[in-house]
Amino acid sequence: LTVHIQTSRALMVISLLLGFFGIIVSVVGMKCTKVGEEDPVTKSRIAVAGGILFVLCGLCTLAAVSLYATQVTYEFFRESTVPINARYEFGSALFIGWGAASLTMLGGALLCCSCPTKDRQGHQYYQQSQPPTAREYV
After folding, report:
1. Has keyword S-adenosyl-L-methionine (predicted)?
2. Which residue of 37, 40, 50, 131 is 20 to 30 Å from 93, comparing CA positions?
């Protein structure tokens, strides 16, 4: 295979691995899971790490799809003996790839927004216990 296809394939494999590890790290960083630390600040930092992995995953996908689209465009406008109706054109897979990359980066950015601010760091969140009620026995 040509170099640009091998490069696109490698970027997509890296993107899949980053997305897989992003899912694992994000699930551990969710506040509703009991995995890992109980500290909300630590959980938020783990969720931000998952968001960063998702943003990197989206960037790798965007680079791979755009590299292939650039090559298709170059081949289409290059002077060749191949007739115009037999040349490659943009297919739906390229647009799906661009959409997936943008949604993955958007999701990672939203996950990165869960980073604790300076005033919230160090505060512990405790559930208030209910005061005992007096019951009368008959």
Report:
1. no
2. 50
Task: Kindly tell me if the per-residue pLDDT of 19 is higher than 80.
Answer: yes
To the nearest 10 degrees (0 to 180), the angle between helices 3-29 and 40-77 is 160
Take residue 86 and report the two structure tokens written for it.
Answer: 């037999």
Burial label, 54 (beta-carbon count in 10 A; 0-12, 13-18, 19+): buried
- CB-based contacts of 54, cutoff 8 Å, min separation 6: 18, 19, 22, 26, 104, 105, 107, 108, 111
Q: How far apart are the first and last CA of the chain?
A: 86
Single pTM value for the model: 0.76
pLDDT at residue 84 greater than cutoff 60: yes
pLDDT over threshold 70, residue 82: no
